[in-house]
Amino acid sequence: MVYENSRFAACQSSQAGAGRMILGERSPYSYRPHADNVIHRVVEGDTLQLLAGAYFSPLQRACGYWWAIADFQPEPTLNPLVSLYLQRAHVVVPSLRVLTDHILPRRVLN
């Protein structure tokens, strides 16, 4: 089962017998310049989940959209398991409008 707010929700999938699903390629919505992008200065303790919760707070389970921030970086080498503070000085956050109007609609399963 692939959950709605999963970063893999837009993958092509196929059944592999015994009820198993195989996920295919995932095409992330990479960085694009939008007038309402936010440049967040990283401070010690910041995580992708905390940033998603803060910037996407009107959405239910906003922290679950951490992957949208990870995918959106101009240099997508972000490892979500390593402290943001150790990796970079700032993070580009897509606005809530970009998330809901551009990133999430691309995830409709075929």
Write down the overall mean pLDDT: 80
Approximate shape = globular
Beta fraction: 5-15%
Number of helices: 4
Provide keyphrases for this structure.
single chain; 110 residues; alpha+beta; two-stranded antiparallel ribbon; two-stranded antiparallel sheet; 13% strand
Summary?
The protein contains four helices and four strands. The chain is an alpha+beta fold and 110 residues long.
Structure, explained:
The structure is a single chain. This protein is α+β, with helices and mostly antiparallel strands and 110 residues long. The protein is built from 4 helices and 4 strands; from the N terminus they run βββαααβα. The chain has helices spanning 48-55, 66-71, 84-87, 96-103, and strands spanning 13-15, 21-23, 38-41, 90-93. The mean pLDDT is 80.
SSE arrangement:
Elements: E1 13-15, E2 21-23, E3 38-41, H1 48-55, H2 66-71, H3 84-87, E4 90-93, H4 96-103
Antiparallel strand pairs: 1-2, 3-4
